[in-house]
């Protein structure tokens, strides 16, 4: 008895280890299954979000196509009635030469109709809306209001899962920006190009995605349960194998022990139902065995359990197994006391008990395992059905060989080959890539370096279509395959190419316009210089006070007009790509001195202080374009003088970075003028734009100066900006990159003397005779007047041949 008790205690250790391992195994599999469910849910939402984004992008393409054509005219029908919100357009409704009435469909009207058709066909809702809708039916709901407010704060996308009519939807919204073509239907100061006009919300029903996710979760759960059961069975089997010798010894010793000790031993050791019988007659059992079949223990003692507890159709095979000393696990059907039939797995051993041989049988319920296996089979059948009947073209491809393993019905319809033909083909028979390129792309997909592709696919009729392919890796029975979803994007690519061609044509027309303006400005500038010059000569003559005042007005107005023409000429050159930057050596200090000298007099007239500050760390001698740099500084400082009535104006130059032979400088022009409202600063650097229309009336200007400055600064490798407070003043700043001069290689500047260049004042007037060549008669007359006033002699010629 004591020896048997010791052996029993020793054999209980593997049981404890098995229990602990089983619990840990269960927790690990449970965590893995929960994590898989979370991933499936997130993947479902992401798939719906991808479809919503694609829907939004299609809406934008349709709108731009419509807007690019200025709207489209369609016959008036019950569904396409004249848009009351376009009543202000004279050409909203037209009539063909045959008398057919047509009405204008603008982008918004078209978008609403597309949304209605899309909802009818797919259940996907689209809604174009705004915080300031013109059409009240376009007013946002609460969710869209929050999305639109987030766009005002700079957010580019807003999405969440919401209930719509009691059904979960993935709602996604992106902003609708004001483009130039929008202003035809939305004129006025309310909107400018680049403003947030509103947005388009897309609501995708989650039901199809949820169904697919639930199926995948069911398959995942079944797989985990099967995996868990297999692992648990392995733990039990391992424990049993470890304790098999001990159990056999315990069963032999049980012959000599009392019945109570034997029952206790069986109960403590067994992890499943165990029964000891002699030709079917129960000799002993554990509590688990009785509970498994739903009987009280005393009802089973001394009866034939084979005929009572097992299905009649399985008894023959059981008797056959009992003839063997040890039977491997086999499956039969058990019958509970209440008549319930369930699946069990049995394993038996022969044991010598005194002078007779008995049979020790372990019984375990495998109902849940069978149910999991059946669920897995059903899940596989469901996924097969989804694959075969899905509306999208789907292919299963071997990533190593490129062989098409399977194709769905949509692929058969799209490519024109039968399913059997497709299964016998390789992806290289369809894909127009070279074999080397195709191998590379398959490798990229296999390594998950790329999952999204654009290809050209050949069909059975030898037609070639542009396709968009999304590929992902899947594992089937231990082998990896590529699951590819194919979308026909031929028409979309054709529309994109047409849109690109239209854009290039528009840009070409814009360049032609700029070249025309540049040429015309030049033609106007030449006679205008003559007007200014002749007015200057007129002022040198003896004029009455009133005549002098009139002449001064003529000269001032002509100079203002010449500045306007210069602005247009410069901007046109920039737009036409004809303005080139020079790279020459110059002295930055001298340039600032010249700037101060040219503007100080006007500042003094207005009672303003004008200063220039060059910080010590800034190199003095630079390489760049001093003319264009001075043009930017004169423009900014001139604006400061124009809009400042008291206080001071300062120009400051500092160094940002220096690398090798290059330096990046920061220029700042500060004033204590009228200032600019914050909401107007973004418009300042746009062409033909000023902060307020009243400024143009009061101070003049074309609105081109700052736009030219911005372009010039960009050509100098920098950027420009402004900070301002109304009533306090403004700071216009810009950065620019320059080279630095190597003074050791520079020769000193000439300072006069006996060289070939001498000052005109050093020569006697009698020694000087000037030959003037000028093709414009007015300018020729102005120049000769100046020469005569200086007391010099001059001759003029209209061209080089005449001069010679």
How does the major sheet shape up? 7 strands, mixed
Poorly predicted runs are: 696-700, 745-763
Strand content is 15-25%
Number of beta strands: 26
- In CATH terms, the superfamily of the domain at 580-747 is Histidine kinase-like ATPase, C-terminal domain
Termini, distance in Å? 142 Å
**What is the correct CATH architecture of the domain at 580-747?**
2-Layer Sandwich
Determine and state the CATH class of the domain at 580-747: Alpha Beta
Backbone shape: elongated
Radius of gyration: 46 Å
Brief descriptors of the model:
single chain, Beta-Lactamase, 24% strand, elongated
What does this structure look like?
- It is built from 21 helices and 26 strands.
- It is α+β, with helices and mostly antiparallel strands and 804 residues long.
- Strands 18, 19, 20, 21, 22, 23 and 24 form a seven-stranded mixed β-sheet that branches.
- Strand 23 and strand 24 (729-740) form a beta hairpin.
- Helix 14 packs antiparallel against helix 15, helix 14 (490-539) runs parallel beside helix 20 (777-789) and helix 15 (545-576) packs across helix 19.
- Residues 696-700 and 745-763 have low confidence and may be disordered.
């Amino acid at each position: 008895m004591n020896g048997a008790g010791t052996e029993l205690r020793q054999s209980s250790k593997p049981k404890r280890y098995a229990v602990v391992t089983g619990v840990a195994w269960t927790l690990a599999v449970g965590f893995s299954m929960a994590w898989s469910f979370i991933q499936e849910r997130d993947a479902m939402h992401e798939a719906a979000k991808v479809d919503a984004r694609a829907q939004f992008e299609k809406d934008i393409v349709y709108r731009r196509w419509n807007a690019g054509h200025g709207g489209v005219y369609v016959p008036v029908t019950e569904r396409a009635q004249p848009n009351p919100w376009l009543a202000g357009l004279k050409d909203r409704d037209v009539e063909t030469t045959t008398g057919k009435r047509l009405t204008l469909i603008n982008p918004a009207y078209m978008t609403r109709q597309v949304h209605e058709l899309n909802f009818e066909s797919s259940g996907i809702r689209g809604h174009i809306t705004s915080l300031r809708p013109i059409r009240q039916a376009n007013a946002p709901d609460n969710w869209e209001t929050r999305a639109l407010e987030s766009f005002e704060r700079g957010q580019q996308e807003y999405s969440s899962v919401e209930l719509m009519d009691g059904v979960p939807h993935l709602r996604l919204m992106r902003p609708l920006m004001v483009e130039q073509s929008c202003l035809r239907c939305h004129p006025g100061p309310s909107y400018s190009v680049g403003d947030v006009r509103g947005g388009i919300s897309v609501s995708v029903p989650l039901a199809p995605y949820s169904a697919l996710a639930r199926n995948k979760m069911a398959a995942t759960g079944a797989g985990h349960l099967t995996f868990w059961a297999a692992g648990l069975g392995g733990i039990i089997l391992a424990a049993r194998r470890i304790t098999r010798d001990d159990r056999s010894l315990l069963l032999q010793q049980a012959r000599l022990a009392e019945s109570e000790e034997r029952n206790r031993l069986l109960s403590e050791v067994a992890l499943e139902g165990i029964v000891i019988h002699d030709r079917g007659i129960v000799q002993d059992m554990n509590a688990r065995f009785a509970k498994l079949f739903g009987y009280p223990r005393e009802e089973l003692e001394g009866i034939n359990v084979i005929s009572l507890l097992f299905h009649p159709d399985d008894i023959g095979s059981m008797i056959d197994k009992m003839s063997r000393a040890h039977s491997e696990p086999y499956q039969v059907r058990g019958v509970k006391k209440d008549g319930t039939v369930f699946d069990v797995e049995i394993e038996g051993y022969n044991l010598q008990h005194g002078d007779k041989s008995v049979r020790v049988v372990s019984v375990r319920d495998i109902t849940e395992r069978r149910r999991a296996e059946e669920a897995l089979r059903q899940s596989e059948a469901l996924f097969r059905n989804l694959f075969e009947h899905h509306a999208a073209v789907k292919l299963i491809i071997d990533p190593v060989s490129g062989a098409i393993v399977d194709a769905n019905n949509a692929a058969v319809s799209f490519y024109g080959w039968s399913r059997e033909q497709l299964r016998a083909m390789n992806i290289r028979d369809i894909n127009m890539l070279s074999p080397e390129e195709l191998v590379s792309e398959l490798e990229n997909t296999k390594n998950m370096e790329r999952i999204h592709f654009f290809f050209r696919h050949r069909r059975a009729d030898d037609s070639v279509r542009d396709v968009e392919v999304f590929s992902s890796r899947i594992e089937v029975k231990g082998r990896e395959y590529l699951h590819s979803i194919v979308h026909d994007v031929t028409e979309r690519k054709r529309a994109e190419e047409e849109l690109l061609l239209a854009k290039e044509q528009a840009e070409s027309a814009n360049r032609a316009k700029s070249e025309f303006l540049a040429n015309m400005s030049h033609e106007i500038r030449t006679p205008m210089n003559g007007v200014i010059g002749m007015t200057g000569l007129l002022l040198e003559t003896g004029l009455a006070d009133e005549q002098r005042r009139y002449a001064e007005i003529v000269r001032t107005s002509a100079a203002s007009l010449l500045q306007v023409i210069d602005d247009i000429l410069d901007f046109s050159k920039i737009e036409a790509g004809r303005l080139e930057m020079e790279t020459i050596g110059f002295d930055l200090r001298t340039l600032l001195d010249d700037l101060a000298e040219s503007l100080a007099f006007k500042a003094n007239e207005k009672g303003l202080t004008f200063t220039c500050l060059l910080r010590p760390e800034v190199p003095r001698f630079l390489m760049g374009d001093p003319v264009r740099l001075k043009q930017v500084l004169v423009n900014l400082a001139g604006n400061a003088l124009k809009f400042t009535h008291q206080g001071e104006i300062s120009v400051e130059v500092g160094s940002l970075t220096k690398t090798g032979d290059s330096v990046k400088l920061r220029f700042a022009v500060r004033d204590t003028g009228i200032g600019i409202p914050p909401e107007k600063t973004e418009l300042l650097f746009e062409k033909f734009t000023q902060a307020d229309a009243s400024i143009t009336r009061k101070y003049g200007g074309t609105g081109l100066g700052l736009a030219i400055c911005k372009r010039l600064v960009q050509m100098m490798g920098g950027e420009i900006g402004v900070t301002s407070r109304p009533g306090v003043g403004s700071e216009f700043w810009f950065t620019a990159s320059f080279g630095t001069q190597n003074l050791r290689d520079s020769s000193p500047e000439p300072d006069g003397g006996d060289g070939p260049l001498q000052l005109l004042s050093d020569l006697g007037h009698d020694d000087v005779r000037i030959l003037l060549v000028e093709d414009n008669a007015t300018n020729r007359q102005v120049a000769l007047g100046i020469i005569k006033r200086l007391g010099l002699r001059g001759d003029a010629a209209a061209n080089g041949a005449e001069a010679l």
